Amino acid sequence: MAKLKDKLWNWGHLEGSHNKCIGLDCSMTPEAFAEVYGIRNAFIVSYGGNIQPPFHALAERLSVLREIKWSVLGDASTPLPDDELGNTKDILALPTDLSSITGGVVDDFFSPKRMERFPPEVLSKIKAALNAAGKDFWCVLYDMQLDMELEKYLDCFDGVTFWIWNCSDISNMEDYLEKLFTLTNGKPVMLGMYLWDYATEKKMDTNLFKQQLTRYTDLLQAGKIEGIIFCSSTIGDADLETNRILKQHIAEYGNLELER
Prior knowledge:
single chain, alpha/beta, eight-stranded parallel beta barrel, 33% helix
């Protein structure tokens, strides 16, 4: 039977990736985050193009992690790959003994440029290639995108990660969650949480952070979601109250057994 901490994930940009945008000097690696926080699952995603194929050396380094979803497309600041299928072929070129890599993900996807470059017929090819290798295919969806016409795109993904971009909008999370579950229609969902308010470039409101953490934990225990993702290991060594709250939460609830 899985424990709650087995369903927690790191949004794993490489160490130092967020130092410029948050004005802090951090150096925590995804591996160190796993050791310090006990979160051994990670989405490994290029930030500003800092992860490029071939991926073999980095994949070997990160093989200590329990489970990894690797970026088919990096964040919005990462140049789009030349290949029609993004980085899919590079992920599938990794040795089969790196079994911790169980899927692929496209970050910051639902923008006009990316949706035009990767229409549903191309996304379906990516999904088919990953699925044939026993891997799943995930996307990133933000609260401001919930009212877009996305059904034909979402059909091309095995799962959806959902993020509330502005910290202040966490107060509206019940409305967002209702829309999300209607839109995804039973598709596996993971819910993302920020450890820093990137929208305003300030520290998170800790009361809202606690509310979100409690609600998402309840949904996880109830089997309504597949996991909770925390962004990000790259600031895991910062002097932030959110980091302390997360550590305490995992210490208290991490070993709770889940029914699935």
